[in-house]
Design goal:
Blueprint (H helix, E strand, L loop, with lengths): L39 E4 H9 L1 H9 L11 H20 L4 H5 L5 E3 L25 H5 L6 E4 L5 E5 L3 E5 L4 E10 L16 H16 L6 E13 L12 E9 L5 H13 L11 H12 L3
Helix pairs in contact: 1-2, 2-7
Amino acid sequence: MIDLEKDGIYSKGKRKGQQRIASGIKDEITVSKYGNPEDIWLSRSAFDEFKKCKRCFYLIRKKGFIAPGTPQFTMNSTTDKLLKKEFDLCRKDQKSHQILIENKLDHIIPYKNEEIAINIYGDPIIPSKSKIPYEKMEAWRSNYHGLQTRFKKTNFILYGSVDDIWFDTKNNSLIIADYKSQANEKEVTQETYWDGDFKTGYQRQLDFYFYLLKQQNLKETISNDAYLLVVNARGLEDKFDNKLLFESTLVHTKVKDDALENEIQEMIDVFNSDNVPESNKLCKNCAYARQRSVIDKL
């Protein structure tokens, strides 16, 4: 796709009054948070980039290249938002959700933790608007904050925001849950859902959250069971009628982090290197850049 910089005039900072242009690179590379420039923060999505293509990861995260954007999936964001509201109602009353009851998992309820959220430096996490400190679940679901942990004794901080965490009342354990939205005429089933290469990224996402949650030193154990709540609009109705009808399916998986620390260390080694790594032969971004460089001398 062709992605254009938003047209108009810059209105903030040193660029005030200047015409916008697409530079392809950031003016300033920001890899720190909370005013501590000594630490480097790498998100779950950064790890996903690393696993897909080390070269793209390095150029984006280390060198500040700006990759072409993709359209915002506003429908997915809306379903995520509504599902969070729905599960929050169950969280407030500490009762199981209907989809869990239907799957004979009524002993599982949304996790509730009203303790004040603390960042990696021991400071309360406070939203800029309300000035009231986040509770832990609120911070863990915030894109900017999320679950946080220092990787071993390095200056690298890993973080990621979860969709939800559930509590298994039988085993006193916490379960990673993630919401997925799609539109596919085929019915979602446990047996067929994991078919397809892109689903590998979903598993990697859950494994990363599993690793982060284990680092939080909570009194509950962390289950290696995880769930995707998949809402699918099949579009089989006779007419639109100003609404989309979704079918909800709970998809189970096992999470593991056996090899994760070695992969994270490899990511850090690549980030710290002065050498640009080789690209993934399957990476379309690299292939496009390579082909364009043959004739394009912009």
